[in-house]
Design a protein that fits this description.
alpha/beta; 45% helix; 14% strand
Length: 170
């Protein structure tokens, strides 16, 4: 089994339950990179590599990781198990797995027991991108430069909403 990848200065840890989650979570990574947030991406199954996940969660805050983004499909226990093992914010990205269009994953993340919060996003790519943006929003509370980049991104996104490419007058 390959070792956990750590990145010096990573502020966000992106974890996936399976390598098959990468095509969706790559959008999360790209969004973090676009906003200049150093992050690391790893595949760590909550079921198949529980001790590896425990070690990662124990080590991450000491290395400067401030937010975890966890993607999983099916039973989707990764986010909940990670949240039980760390005090830093955990954002859950339900994947559209082999059954129920991702509803099983969504419910697994959203229905956490009281006291173990997982901020749960939408199923699939929209959730992956929004998880990155929510992580940036959290980090920007104590980082003026990141806050400026985030606000500029939001303004650019809002302005683009009203553009009609190819329409007269645009």
């Amino acid at each position: 089994m390959s070792e956990v990848v750590t990145v010096d200065g990573a502020r966000v840890g992106v974890l996936m339950g399976s390598a098959s989650d990468w095509p969706t979570m790559e959008k999360c990574s790209q969004t973090l990179a676009k906003l200049g947030v150093t992050h690391e991406c790893n595949v760590i199954s909550a079921h198949r590599a529980a001790k590896r996940l425990e070690a990662y969660c124990a080590d991450a805050p000491g290395r400067g990781v401030q937010v975890l983004i966890c993607a999983a499909g099916g039973a989707a226990h990764l986010a909940g198990v990670a949240a039980a093992m760390t005090h830093i914010p955990v954002l859950g990205c339900p994947m559209n797995a082999w059954s129920t269009e991702g509803l099983d994953s969504l419910l697994s993340m959203a229905q956490m027991p009281k006291g173990i919060p997982v901020g749960t996003l939408a199923v699939g790519s929209a959730g992956a991108i929004n998880a990155a943006l929510l992580a940036v929003s959290i980090l920007s509370l104590n980082d003026a430069e990141l806050n400026d980049r985030y606000l500029a991104f939001r303004a650019e996104q809002s302005a683009a909403t009203f553009e009609l490419p190819g329409a007269p007058g645009h």
